[in-house]
Design goal:
Its EC number is 3.1.1.-. It is built from 13 helices and 16 strands. By secondary structure, the protein is of the alpha/beta class. The chain has a single domain (50-400), classed as 3-Layer(aba) Sandwich (Rossmann fold). The strands form 4 sheets. The chain has a 10-stranded mixed beta sheet with strand order 5-2-3-6-4-9-10-11-12-15. Strands 1-16 form a two-stranded parallel sheet. A two-stranded antiparallel ribbon has the order 7-8. β13 (377-378) and β14 (381-382) form a beta hairpin.
Length: 416
């Protein structure tokens, strides 16, 4: 049965990104972020048997310059594995958009996306982080880690802005966190999976080969990117919203020096932050989990408010069932671009795919979309089963859904 998830705010606030240039806009960002924090907690509200994992701040990180935007130490949540999973490790990189201007980065310093002072002291582990076999059949007893996101550049920046006391240290946070986890037993891993959602899904692509290089060749290492396939797409008015935003972020945060030279030797740094230009050169087995009509990209890349001042597309972007035929053709073209972008990637036997025709975003961290009785399926196989089959080499997984509206298993997002 199709499930519709209704969110009461624009997905713009889900990622906490602000492009506003006025003080009123900054105040609006703060209000949206507070509402977002409330809704996120409500979405995964702890039940009687919830698994609440405490936050661990990385001691000594500041001495290495590995700090959040505001200079506070980064953190993670670790739930130890048990029995057969004691020597297996799953690292989940948190998402949450990017900041591309001084103002938007200064704003993030006042939230958990830019400061560990505001991070939750305990997080509910669900979906791919669950410790219950009936909720997470293949990874439930692994060492499971949620690495918090507080740099605003997908764990890839290097620099600072002294005038505004901003630290762009995403790459150092990544390296320091990996050192910490290796010391806590990850160096003995028999198998390891680097995962992430949204901006964290992009980070799992950017850092995939680095993650593999941490381990001896005898360790089975793979990567999973959930909702991280951000496309260099043209919006409905002919502009390039995401490219413009990435350009500012790459320049401001010094990301270019940490991008793969296999890409930067051929393209400009901004292009090399787009996964479509990276995935073909990644040597480590990689699984792409993405909604063909990614809800964040529909909202903020394809139909940004700035490109639709008269609101002609508002009803369509808030609820896909309100799109007219020409608007739906535009969204179908976006799906075609996504399939074209992964064409070469899909040719490799070691890679995996689950591209469902849903209006969704991040499907591995929510229990209802990861593994449940009515979770999304392609060919009657749930996302968790598809990822598990791929990781353990049980069967090749190259699942691509037929176009909307053929899939009635989607948990589509509708915005009010």
């Amino acid at each position: 049965m199709k499930r519709v998830l209704i969110w009461v705010l624009s997905l713009w606030s889900v990622v906490g990104i602000g492009w506003s240039r006025s003080e009123d806009g900054l105040q609006e960002l703060k209000a949206k972020d507070r509402l977002l924090s409330f809704l996120e907690k409500d979405a995964v509200s702890p039940g009687a048997n919830s698994l609440m994992i405490p936050l661990t701040l990385i001691q000594g990180a500041a001495s290495k310059g590995a700090v959040c935007l505001d200079g506070t130490p980064p953190g993670y949540h670790l739930d130890r594995g048990f029995r057969s999973g004691s020597n297996s490790w799953l690292i989940q990189l948190e998402g949450g958009g990017w900041c591309n201007t001084i103002r938007s980065c200064v704003f993030r310093k006042t939230t958990r996306r830019g400061s560990s002072k505001f991070m939750e002291k305990r997080l509910n582990f669900t979906g791919i982080l669950s410790n219950k076999a009936e909720e997470n059949p293949d990874f439930y007893n692994w060492n499971r880690v949620k690495l918090r996101y507080c740099d605003g550049a997908s764990f890839s920046g290097e620099g600072q802005n002294e005038a505004n006391q901003l630290y762009f240290r995403g790459q150092r946070i990544w390296s320091t966190a990996m050192e910490e986890l290796m010391a806590k037993g990850m160096r003995n891993a028999e198998q390891a999976l680097l995962s992430g959602c949204s901006a964290g899904g992009l980070a799992s692509i950017l850092h995939c080969d680095e993650f593999k290089d941490l381990f001896p060749s005898t360790t089975k290492v793979k990567c999973l990117s959930d909702a991280g396939l951000f496309l260099d797409a043209t919006n409905m008015a002919g502009g390039h919203t995401l490219r413009d935003m990435y350009r500012g972020m790459v320049t401001l945060q010094g990301v270019q020096k940490n991008l793969p030279n296999t890409c930067t030797s051929q393209m400009d740094p901004t292009s090399c932050f787009f996964p479509q230009n990276l995935i073909a050169n990644i040597q480590t087995p990689l699984f792409l989990l993405n909604a063909a009509y990614d809800a964040w990209q529909v909202q903020e890349s394809l139909i940004p408010s700035s490109a639709d001042p008269h609101g002609f597309w508002r009803d369509c972007k808030m609820d896909h069932s309100h799109c007219n035929s020409s608007q739906m053709l535009f969204l179908q073209d976006f799906r075609n671009q996504m399939l074209s972008a992964i064409n070469g990637f899909s040719m490799s036997n070691q890679n995996g795919l689950f591209i469902n025709s849903c209006f969704a975003h991040c499907q591995s961290e929510r229990q209802d979309t990861w593994y449940a009785n009515d979770s999304p399926r392609i060919g009657n196989k749930a996302i968790a089963a598809s990822v598990g089959d791929w990781f353990f080499d049980r069967t090749a997984t190259k699942a691509i859904d037929c176009p909307y509206p053929c899939d009635n298993t989607c948990h589509n997002l509708i915005f009010k």
